[in-house]
């Protein structure tokens, strides 16, 4: 047997380097179109056939591969477009009939949709949005009542 007392051990430190991850632009666009269509379905209350785990994984993939800006700006565009093209028209058309009821329904629908969208884009909200000091998808009231709904953009 060899004598371990007098032997000197040479330790080699193994360095692990991050491998740069690249993602094909066509693949990113396919993911984005998939997510965009799903978000629009949610806004139209047509979300019965959506698979939320798959949507979350796709959003996660985009953020992981440094595509958070595309996801965030695209989401803001979709929300703005929906509110201007669909919601505002309905509310304005109800000015002389059932304005408050229509406005309240539009707000409730928007809040419900935004909670679902926030769940899909949770990773983007927690990572990309916070790292870049951007506005979160949904904020809680600073002084909430008993069970407040979140305030969503």
TrEMBL record:
GO biological process entries: ubiquitin-dependent protein catabolic process
Cullin N-terminal domain boundaries: 32-133
Superkingdom assignment: Eukaryota
Molecular functions per Gene Ontology: ubiquitin protein ligase binding
Any one Pfam family match given in the protein's UniProt record, by short name: Cullin
InterPro entries for this protein: Cullin, Cullin_N, Cullin_repeat-like_dom_sf
Family statement drawn from the similarity comment of this UniProt entry: Belongs to the cullin family.
Protein name: Cullin N-terminal domain-containing protein
Species per Swiss-Prot/TrEMBL record: Cynoglossus semilaevis (Tongue sole)
